Amino acid sequence: MRVCPGALGYFLDQWKECLLLALQHHFQEHLVSHPRTDQDQPCLASEASQQWYAGWYAVCEWRSPEQLKDLLDLELREGGEAHPQILQRCRDAIRYSVKTGHPLFFNQLYAGMDPYSLVGRFITEAINPSLYTYEVAPVFLLTEEAVLQKMIEIIGWQEGGDGIFSPGGSVSNMYAVNVARYHHCPDVKVLGLSALPRLVMFTSQECHYSVAKAAAFLGIGTNNVYVIPSDKRGKMIPAEFEKQVQRGALPFMVNATAGTTVLGAFDPLEEIADICERHNLWMHVDACWGGGALMSKKHRYLLQGIHRANSVAWNPHKMLMAGLQCCAFMVRDKTNLLQRCHSAQASYLFQQDKFYDVSYDTGDKSIQCSRKPDAFKFWLMWKAIGTKGLEERVDRALAMARYLAEEIKKRDGFRLVMEPEYTNVCFWYIPPSLRDMADGPDVCTTPYLQVAPVVKERMMKKGSMMVGYQPHGDKANFFRQIIISPQVSREDMDFLLDQIHSLGMDL
Amino acid sequence: MRVCPGALGYFLDQWKECLLLALQHHFQEHLVSHPRTDQDQPCLASEASQQWYAGWYAVCEWRSPEQLKDLLDLELREGGEAHPQILQRCRDAIRYSVKTGHPLFFNQLYAGMDPYSLVGRFITEAINPSLYTYEVAPVFLLTEEAVLQKMIEIIGWQEGGDGIFSPGGSVSNMYAVNVARYHHCPDVKVLGLSALPRLVMFTSQECHYSVAKAAAFLGIGTNNVYVIPSDKRGKMIPAEFEKQVQRGALPFMVNATAGTTVLGAFDPLEEIADICERHNLWMHVDACWGGGALMSKKHRYLLQGIHRANSVAWNPHKMLMAGLQCCAFMVRDKTNLLQRCHSAQASYLFQQDKFYDVSYDTGDKSIQCSRKPDAFKFWLMWKAIGTKGLEERVDRALAMARYLAEEIKKRDGFRLVMEPEYTNVCFWYIPPSLRDMADGPDVCTTPYLQVAPVVKERMMKKGSMMVGYQPHGDKANFFRQIIISPQVSREDMDFLLDQIHSLGMDL
């Protein structure tokens, strides 16, 4: 017997620098103390030290696609490269990547970092499992089941339910459409839609774009998604929904959104549930973003009525910081609907003559074959900080959003689009040259359209922070500030507003 | 300015033990020298050292679902746990997970480990990017593009093509169905299938089960998948295909399989392409498993004609060992079909007034919103070992499969199901008590049905190796041995056959 116990140490030594560099992107303790004003910058005489400074603190080090192609040397060749060159490839990849864990990254509906989740991901990447059967992924199927059952309990389905982790909220919403139509007409699996009357579904105008993608992909057709108007706060108007249900064809489901993408609005779930009961519709709640509020005793009223839904999509990789991807799709059904709707019973994988209880081979519930263990990192983090720790995180993010909204109201040249209910804080920045026009309804029109894109360009080229913007309905481009991470402080909120002003005051 | 440069070191110190443990699962240099006979076992007097031995060398440490639930303490509670407890959770998760990188893990269509891919995954997990837009994932969108273009070149589409990485080969096959039907009837995206005549598609009886899942999920219906008989070698019979095309309804695509799941068979692509041309059908090749052979000048003849396909699915996480998941879906089309077919143009994400060339914001080609950077690890590995290194890996795996097949022919009590073309080596083990019956056609029937499940149970409880089995058509359960990793040696092949005999000789 020959054993080489030094092999692991050798591996870690070889790649330690890269791992450290990569961890800098995530483990931001040193970045929490990043400089917030130009006066804070250290005195860096040489160009080299200035570069170091920029790379260390910037949210991103912007390069155009053409520049970056040159820098990375993307070409794949016949021969391999030596170790020092590969190390340089790793350094470059890390350097020019956006630091999504940076406290000033506010660009998407995920941000920040949790060290437990990260350790969980390192473990699962090293183990490289795939979740079809208990025999190859025992730990990861059981932890998935435990997480799903706890999430189902928190939703409030007292009789229990079923679920599966999926590669993204968009796919979860597709699951919802498929399960809803199968529930309505089980023949669809075998006969297809061409054997059925025209099916129609409902969603609000503020819903995520994946609802349209789902309708197209699943053969429903985007025209058969009836779009319900929302009120000024971005919430579906129930009376309009009921009107649309009576328009004919075969209505089978509604997608209610709990936490819309732009405004962070919550559809009125109780009223939607009443209408679904009256008309025998499947009620799906897309809580991919807003589901986090369920963890908070203080804020879960936003999703009042979610326990009446037939299915829920909820992404812990967003507000709860479980790391991309971590997306649960859950159904209240207890009759093995997921399995019946999606199974194909491959005999080479789901053998029925195995020596253990094959009800633990849950892979056939999924539309995937190989599937990543996305629940494990969340399970580990939950074990480490507890339900209470998750609750505190959510409460803190909502309090911070409230602080930012109040600051915006105090400052000249900033205007809230609406009072935030969740952590989407939407606002315009109005440069001094345009402020005379700012009191009328014109704030929504052309001159303002240019402000946010230019400010965004300048912040990215400086690397000082990243925040999203978009036009919305009749409203010109406004910033959408998303708050998630407990590493974000009030000083960061002040810095954000100062930066926007300093980057845009000349416009 | 306050900087805490010790933070990273602290992080690594805290979690080093876990990372090392997890890496043991992947970095198997010490396992290449695992003991292959009972005589090889070290003399371990104490129970503790015996446990250490078992955990160190076993492919898996089997526990039933009930036992494992107790061991893992799955419950999620109000309060969090202290660091030592969380470390123990990690140790347990690693210990009871199957070592998919172990040289004796032959259970699935992936195995082994590549250190470059693993480093790539550690980097991307730390950076936590999502691939919708260039602004948030510049490095990862460019490396994805570079990998896709190289794969397209290798397929042989001289005019180029387009592609996207997807979360699994099953999803890639779904992309194929959606793109094919959109190409055939672009109205389907808006109007849905209810506005169209009944669409039908074709695949062989040996295809992957995801084709049926795709037909169900996309609203085609499993009845509208016409199943073409295969020959004895598992290859689609072209004449039967052409017969089916003439059966009526609206045929729009065929799924040809290059590397079937059980037998490793390759459908005759040239002849299928001829039929597709005659009947104006979309030709999709599911080369998720067999695509690896394209890297080898010696073996790429197996996919002769793939350059005539309209779309190809190819998973480098399988034969090329890029780590789960790494799944490319590619189309020959150059008219932006992927974008047209799948886009929803969300204005909050795919703003058209950005300051850079937004054609690099490729996320709207996808059915996902958040999406993992699955191409990067493959790009890094390819850079490190070159096209030549990938070719050698494939050639070595096929040579090893040939060695195993020859060994099987030499040994009493073993019988090949067929000569392998790829690295699926399918065979029966016939215990001495049944050998008298083995010469007739009865080898396919009842008494043999029990052998493989019992041998599998015994090998898992011992932890000595993992190999799959299944019944197939009229054939009773046989073993399906998959060879991938360059860490697998001839001695491992001999060990496999010895083990099966020693575990099953009393049956």
From TrEMBL, chains A, B:
Keywords: Decarboxylase, Lyase, Pyridoxal phosphate. GO terms for cellular component: cytoplasm. InterPro entries: PyrdxlP-dep_de-COase, PyrdxlP-dep_Trfase, PyrdxlP-dep_Trfase_major, Pyridoxal-P_BS. Its cofactor is pyridoxal 5'-phosphate. SUPFAM superfamilies: PLP-dependent transferases (SSF53383). One of its GO terms (biological process) is carboxylic acid metabolic process. PROSITE patterns: DDC_GAD_HDC_YDC. This is Uncharacterized protein. The gene is GADL1.
